[in-house]
């Protein structure tokens, strides 16, 4: 196999360069002379993550598709810490990205199974206050392109960044309680009735009414003769309210300019 470099990173003080090679080795080089200093052995698959510590020039983090995360001392060429991302019943999860915190005390990684892994000093108690599974309900909503090739949400015909704040759901699409919904920016002061009811009722093509957890309905519902989901209706209503507010702001701004008031101030 012809060796190929997949990633490259400089040490914090620029004295060293670390390269990841497709034979699963990491190589540490002197950046001034080009001399090979160390071969770092440990990965079993290609490495696409190399992260430098924010202030300690000795420390380099590596992670790859083999599920391994290593902390290296690149000055000595030694392994300091190792973590293997084993997921119960599913094998290992490939690690796609890692980043250090600005103070260098923590780092966070994301994997192929949608997990966020947080490492560092201290205890995990603060993280136990939030659910294990947190997704936005819009994460897997279908998108379309308009005539200008811009991306729009299929249901509301709006650019995704202009849509109302999304709802927090678990991996099955079940909405979380209202105390978690208020953690979403833009939903801090929403009334309880705007933070998703827990259950809804839908009618099948046979006229049978069934209870269903909101958010579990699929985009194929129309083909199956099901009524639109309650959550979709709430999204449509929120989008309409937002459009009306935007239109009112534009109208008041236009009237103010026509009356010679100059640029109006927003309350």
Descriptive account of the structure:
By secondary structure, this protein is an alpha+beta fold. The chain folds into two domains: 5-120, Methylamine Dehydrogenase, Chain H (7 Propeller); 135-213, no CATH class. It is 14% helix and 33% strand. The protein has three helices and 19 strands. The chain has helices at 178-181, 221-224, 230-258; strands spanning 5-10, 16-21, 26-30, 36-40, 47-52, 59-64, 68-73, 78-84, 86-87, 91-92, 95-100, 106-111, 116-120, 135-136, 143-145, 151-153, 168-169, 199-203, 209-213. It has a four-stranded antiparallel sheet, with no helix packed on it. The relative contact order is 0.07. Residues 210-227 and 261-267 have low confidence and may be disordered.
List the helices and strands and how they pair.
Blueprint: E1 5-10, E2 16-21, E3 26-30, E4 36-40, E5 47-52, E6 59-64, E7 68-73, E8 78-84, E9 86-87, E10 91-92, E11 95-100, E12 106-111, E13 116-120, E14 135-136, E15 143-145, E16 151-153, E17 168-169, H1 178-181, E18 199-203, E19 209-213, H2 221-224, H3 230-258
Antiparallel strand pairs: 1-2, 2-3, 3-4, 5-6, 6-7, 7-8, 9-10, 11-12, 12-13, 14-17, 15-16, 18-19
CATH fold type of the largest domain: Methylamine Dehydrogenase, Chain H
**Low-pLDDT sequence parts:** 210-227, 261-267
CATH class wording of the largest domain: Mainly Beta
| Secondary-structure element string | EEEEEEEEEEEEEEEEEHEEHH
Question: What's the number of structural domains?
Answer: 2
Strand order of the largest sheet: 1-2-3-4
Q: What structural class do the secondary elements suggest?
A: alpha+beta
Total strand segments: 19
| C-alpha Rg (nearest Å) | 26 Å
Q: What's the mean pLDDT score? A: 79
Helix proportion range:
10-25%
N-end to C-end Cα span: 65 Å
Shape: elongated
Query: What is the count of helical runs?
Result: 3
Corresponding CATH superfamily of the largest domain? YVTN repeat-like/Quinoprotein amine dehydrogenase
Largest sheet: 4 strands, antiparallel
CATH architecture of the largest domain: 7 Propeller
Portion of residues in beta strands equals: 25-35%
């Amino acid at each position: 196999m012809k060796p190929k470099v997949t990633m490259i990173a400089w040490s914090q003080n620029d004295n060293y360069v670390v390269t990841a090679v497709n034979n699963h080795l990491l190589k540490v080089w002197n950046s001034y002379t080009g001399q090979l200093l160390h071969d770092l052995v440990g990965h079993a698959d290609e490495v696409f993550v190399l992260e430098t510590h924010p202030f300690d020039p000795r420390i380099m983090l590596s992670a790859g598709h083999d599920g391994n995360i290593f902390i290296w001392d690149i000055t000595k060429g030694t392994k300091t810490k190792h973590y293997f991302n084993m997921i119960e019943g599913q094998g290992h999860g490939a690690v796609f990205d890692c980043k250090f915190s600005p103070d260098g005390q923590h780092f966070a990684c994301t994997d192929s199974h949608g997990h966020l892994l947080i490492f560092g000093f201290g205890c995990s108690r603060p993280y136990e206050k939030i659910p294990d599974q947190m997704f936005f309900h819009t994460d897997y909503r279908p998108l379309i392109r308009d005539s200008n090739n811009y991306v729009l949400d299929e249901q509301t015909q709006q650019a995704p960044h202009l849509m109302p704040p999304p709802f927090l759901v678990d991996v099955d699409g079940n909405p979380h309680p209202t105390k978690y919904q208020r953690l979403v920016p833009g939903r801090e002061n929403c009334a309880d009735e705007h933070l998703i009811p827990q259950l809804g009722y839908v009618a099948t093509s046979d006229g049978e009414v069934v209870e269903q957890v909101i958010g579990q309905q699929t985009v194929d519902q129309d083909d199956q003769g099901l009524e639109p989901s309650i959550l979709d209706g709430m999204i449509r209503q929120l989008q309409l309210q937002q459009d009306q507010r935007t239109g009112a702001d534009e109208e008041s701004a236009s009237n103010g300019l026509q009356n010679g008031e100059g640029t109006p101030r927003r309350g």
